[in-house]
């Protein structure tokens, strides 16, 4: 029996217009009224996640920054797993050999290393990545990251060096790497994965998300539910991108990929629901509650 549902936000709970449909909202409310805990599991920061759901009051908890933090429904910090300074230096060194932009995520602010001109050049690269994602959206049906990139551009500031950033005392939870060439990102990804205690995933075809190895959605979700007396077989997970891979590939009771998900994620999931523009979360939840889980297409 499923007692917990954990869902990604972008490309999963939200449609391509980044809106929560009435169908998805009703299905979540129905699940919670049935006694099922509903969790958000996202690469977003908490304050960005609640902009979607705050007025809806739909979530019983949040796994944010791809697993680097867990937050209660009241906004209380429950756990925190920042990157080590040593690993930040190592990732930045790897990235310096490639034409990519690296954004360092703290809770209150996003940073880029360099002066104003270097930052402007990085913004130009990010625009190239935006256009590449839009092309991919047309060709594959996968979501593009325009709104996310625009949001990051508004709040990213330049700092001269990593040491200057560390003097501010704010932990870095995630490195967000953006490039305009998928092959280059794949090469960089292979290098980064050689660094101990690092996890690398992606939410779009033109980015990498670097966190501590323990800060992965699936691992953090397991800790969260077990601390509350639930078992993995009692959990349904829903996602669409490779930063959802850990919670889709782990042996949770019901694992569901969106129809618009990356192919590797679909292969890892036990079921595939409808597209995010067709209320795929609602379809999966309603099938579960109606006792017709088999109606969700098997991979």
TrEMBL record:
Pfam families, per the entry: Hydrolase_3
Superkingdom of this protein's organism: Bacteria
GO molecular function, one term: magnesium ion binding
InterPro entries linked to this entry: Cof, HAD-like_sf, HAD-SF_hydro_IIB, HAD_sf
GO cellular component: cytosol
Identification of the protein by name: Cof subfamily of IIB subfamily of haloacid dehalogenase superfamily/HAD-superfamily hydrolase, subfamily IIB
The organism of origin for this protein: Anaerocolumna jejuensis DSM 15929
